[in-house]
Amino acid sequence: MNNLNCRSCERKFNKSEVNKKATFCHYCFSKARVERIQAEVFLKENFKKKWCADLFKGYVQYLEQLQIGVDTIRKHSSKVLKVLQMDESDVLRPSDITETWVVTALEKLPNSKGVKPSLFRFLVRKGLLNLDQDDGVITGISKQLEQVPKGFKRLLEIYFNERMELRKRQVNFNARNPLSLVTVKTDLDIFIRLVKWFQNNSKHIESWDTVQQEDIHEFLLTLTPKHREIVRKDLLVLFKLANRKRIITHIPILDVKSRELPPTIEPLSFEDQVRVAKTIKHNLYEKPLDSILTSLCFYHGLSSSHIRNIKTVDLNLEQKTIFFSERPTVYLSDDEMIMINEYAKARANIRNVENKSYLILSSSASEVYQDRPINNRFIATKVKELTGFTPKSLRITCFNTIASHFGPQLLVEGFGVSLTQASRYGKLEDYLIDEQIQTQREYVSNYSDG
User: Which CATH class, in words, describes the domain spanning 270-406?
Assistant: First the structure.
């Protein structure tokens, strides 16, 4: 019965924790992590500049003052840790932090939308960020608009002013996700690109009121399918605004429901999955690095970003686990422990390994005195050489197989996948209906037998 209760708080494990053979519950695990990341030892290991370490510790304490749950603090702090580590290399002093830089840094991290509001409010509170600052973006937009032909310029200026007013209202009302200047600039870049396309391919169009539906369709066909749908929705917003302001008399684009595009990468067939599993099994000792990289993608659905950022402190050999701050802990199989042990022997021969914090290392001479993670290309090359498939294909196969057998909800709870991403591998409602039908069938079968 002891294995059904947390060793620390003695709380009874939920079904997920029991299946994972956990020794500590999620709450105690997160609580211990939040305490550890505020310790001086952790701060010295992860930061070279004291002001970055103080800023990170202040952010964690800020969340604690707001009485945020330890699970949320653990997830948010892991992303802010990576942002501030980027900060050390890109920003010389705290006063150089800008809204554009923070937004760009967060966009590089997966599932970082929830971090933005708390990080922005903390930086504003510390006096390091001002959401109303120009930051050079507005000046750059103004210069772009000056170069737009007269027949198109007025509408783009109205759009820009409308978006800035919306942003101002959101900031005044302390909106959770105020409109970013980068978003406004990206939208205007699309519209200016359309104007330039008109100048090169449809010279008879001199203003917005002469644009026809065929012209918009020809422009959209020059884009990739995924980008095409995004641009179509942005253009629809622009033309609705133009119609409301009576700049045009008709909207030259249909307001149709967005269609979900087919997946660009299909999951592996059952035969290919068997072949990949056998390949991993046969190379436990000969190619431990290639095998463990492939196994983490194929069996655990880890992305290249997850794998490359694993540190030695995240690996617990006794519990056979790898800790991740932004997704549930990964539990390793016996074969994977063999791969880890074999790789550890080869890793020990890499020069300057005692000063390396990351688990997966490159033996390149250029990386000997650099303590930084390997790149995604390194992982892709190793995995493809072993199996013939990319890490992304193996990851999609993992998620597709799990969702087809147990439903997409398990991807959310067990793999840390967002609801939006999980829905791509199966509709949550459909799975619940199938589960209910199966329950009813079992009930009818038992009733008939009785």
Answer: mainly alpha
